[in-house]
Amino acid sequence: MSFETISERGLVILGCGRMGGAILEGLLKGGLPANAVWVIDPNPSGWLTGTGVHLNTELPAEPAVVLLAVKPQMMADALPQLQAMAGGDTLFVTVAAGITMEGYERMLGGETRLVRAMPNTPAAIGRGVTAIVGNPKAMTGDLDTAEALMSAVGQVVRLENEGQMDAVIGVSGSGPAYVFHLIEVMAAAGEAEGLAPELALQLAKATVAGAGALAEQSDETPSKLRENVTSPGGTTAAALEVLMDPQTGMPPLMRRAVAANIARNRELGK
């Protein structure tokens, strides 16, 4: 399915909060006509009114794509208004965490073409990463369409199966929160050693942002980059001895954190 088809038949977005809004903004900047978009949102953001999209108006009978961007706990109440579009030529793409394809089949019907997508919050600045996977009814072209949509807010990767989605949510979906907390604790440690709070926070944010950019752009592995800045017996090595401790350091802590994330995600999906 091409963007030309989406322009002709329309894109419906259910929920236009932070993530739905970021995707819409990226699509509009990428050239999708505003009059090809219908947004359903009972409490729309003010910026939507000036975009030219159809806001809370009558929907096309058979749009090319429906993007589901409401919170998981709201999905069961929100989907009935779209059930007439399910099971036909409309592709459903969901960015909601927790709800499995089996759950959507119960709400929409088993014949619905569906792609699950899991972006993360850097999508708000076009630097997100999204994992996608289709249900048995989704065709290769449907995955191409979903990838084109989600590319509006960053990188896109394809999963081999839906079972991998839990790990994606645990690593990249929730991962920005882990990094934000890292910034918090680095700044707090600097402040505890005598830096002014504003300076400590500036140093922590710039260090994390710069290191992340270097890791993404470099051909070397993160392990090699770490080794490059670690002199034997030096100050960095002393800190890493604490952080890399196999019992109390970051490796076991991160494994427990991701495992707790996955366990909670599975609870929400029931």
From TrEMBL:
Q: What function does this protein fulfil? A: Catalyzes the reduction of 1-pyrroline-5-carboxylate (PCA) to L-proline.
Q: Give every Pyrroline-5-carboxylate reductase dimerisation domain span.
A: 162-268
Q: Which InterPro entries match?
A: 6-PGluconate_DH-like_C_sf, NAD(P)-bd_dom_sf, P5C_Rdtase_cat_N, P5CR_dimer, Pyrroline-COOH_reductase
Documented EC number(s): 1.5.1.2
Q: Which residues bind NADPH?
A: N56
Q: Which gene encodes it?
A: proC
Q: Where in the cell is it found?
A: Cytoplasm
Record's protein name: Pyrroline-5-carboxylate reductase
**What is the catalytic activity of this protein?**
L-proline + NAD(+) = (S)-1-pyrroline-5-carboxylate + NADH + 2 H(+); L-proline + NADP(+) = (S)-1-pyrroline-5-carboxylate + NADPH + 2 H(+)
Taxonomy of the source species:
Bacteria, Pseudomonadati, Pseudomonadota, Alphaproteobacteria, Rhodobacterales
- On the tree of life, the source organism's domain of life is Bacteria
What organism does this protein naturally occur in?
Answer: Thioclava atlantica
